Amino acid sequence: PMARGLAACTRLAAAAAAVSAVASSPLQSRVSAVSMSTAAGAAPPRITQDRARNNLITIAPGEGMPHTATVIGPIHGLGDSNMGWADVAMQLQSVMPYCKFILPNAPVRPVTLNGGMSMPSWYDITSLDKRESQPCTGIEESRQAMLDLISAEVASGIPPSRIAIAGFSQGGAVALFTGLQYSHTLAGVLCLSGYLAAEERFILAPEAVNTPVAHFHGSDDQTVQIKWARGSQAHLRELGIRTYELKEYSPLGHSASQQEIADVLAWLQARLPEDA
Predict the structure, then answer these.
(1) Is 254 designated active site?
(2) Lower CB count within 10 Å: N or C terminus of the chain?
(3) Can 129 be counted among the known catalytic residues?
């Protein structure tokens, strides 16, 4: 209903203002800020950072709020960390307090594009050209790490139909590579400024043809060019994906805009509604 949508946007704006004020502060300070803007009537989320699991961040429903859905991500991109998307995840969770957000960290590994120097990376990238022919060394290990997170959620009682996986840039590539090879139909796969990596090794799971995909991308992106997003959509549709929405934002480069994040919220709420 329109009233619910307007209320959600208002809460998202309030959360955004709260986290922007503490964007450079430690995680615990951010928790306090977002707690003040949590959806009316909901307890503040339970937020943890697990050092034993490469500082994995979990933003879980607060006390008394049933946990009925999970989002793996947003998974960060090359050279970044999960802290780069923690603010956005907390904003989203403040509007979807029944949902858990899990933000993993990429391992530090040598990256050819970085002159062989090590940096956080889900797989090796050799250049910014001809992405479709790159070996993407390490992507299978990253896929398995995401599958482990999904499996843990299923084991805890959250069905695949209530789990979505999302990511930005290289993280978006990992989301596509994982979610669409998963042996169950997920609530959805969300790719921001990403592309389908390692196409020659990608095998669409029969169950994944019904997993809806949303791909949001800047039309002026010079890092992951818009033609790669369009090519990913065309290739996956040819393989049998039934729902692959590609929305282009102009002017927008390799980043996210306020409108895009609002669209992310709307898409997640449609795929993971509270009253499902």
Answers:
(1) yes
(2) N
(3) no
